[in-house]
Amino acid sequence: MKKGLNRSVITDEIYALLKEQIINHDIPSGEKINIDQLARDLEVSNIPIREALTRLMAEELVYTVPFKGMYVAQISLQELDEMFEIRKELESLAIRKAVSQIPEARLVHLDQEMRKWSTGQPVNDNEKMNVIAEMNQSLHGLILDYCDNQSLKGLINMYIDRIQRYSSLFQKGMEQQLLQDEWDEHMLVVRGLVTRDAAMAEEALLNHLQNSHLRTRSFIQ
Q1: Nearest CA to 73 among 58, 88, 51?
Q2: Largest Cα–Cα distance of the chain, in whole Å?
Q3: Predicted TM-score of the model (pTM)
Q4: Which are the contacts of 127, defined by CB distance < 8 A and separation ≥ 6?
Q5: Which of 77, 128, 197, 209 could be 122's S-S partner, Cβ–Cβ 3.0 to 4.6 Å?
Q6: In this predicted model, which residue has the larger pLDDT, 30 or 9?
Q7: What contacts 80, CB < 8 A, 6 or more positions away?
Q8: CB atoms within 10 A of CB 204
Q9: How many angstroms separate the CA atoms of 8 and 51, rounded?
Q10: Among 128, 121, 126, which residue's Cα sits nearest to residue 175?
């Protein structure tokens, strides 16, 4: 175990590392997780690794096969469809709760950030992926921060993480038009929030999530 850090800190670090690797497909779908090799690579005991994997199993990113070990969860169209179906219902509730609660200053800042991103010209995959990640965090993160329901926020974040594992498959080699589509859809939600029009904001959000679902699905088929 790393000197000077307790086991809970080590477990958090390993959990974050493995989760990122699974979401980005550095550890491929369906691959068996070699706990002993991970322990050697990370210079820790098996215990914090198993604790981290237990957390990932609760998020359905890994699963266990009796007498064989732990594996990275497979990806499937059925799972993708189910996750978006649930996310749309949950995030609709979140935006209805949040639209009147978000401070004006936060909305002004969000609008300014969106306009800044509209003038940028990302030239490679990493820059484009970073812009989308920043837009998502600024908008969806803001909605969740003011939905006044921590359980709801936690559930939606879990589905966002799981869906990101699918989205990362098509974000490499991203066309500029896709980035523009994402911006346009986000901006419609922002306008609904800025005007405090709950119906407009919810409709725009659902349209965005539906389009995201179809875009992601087209790269999995």
Answers
A1: 58
A2: 57
A3: 0.85
A4: none
A5: 128
A6: 30
A7: 163, 166, 213, 216, 217, 220
A8: 21
A9: 9
A10: 128
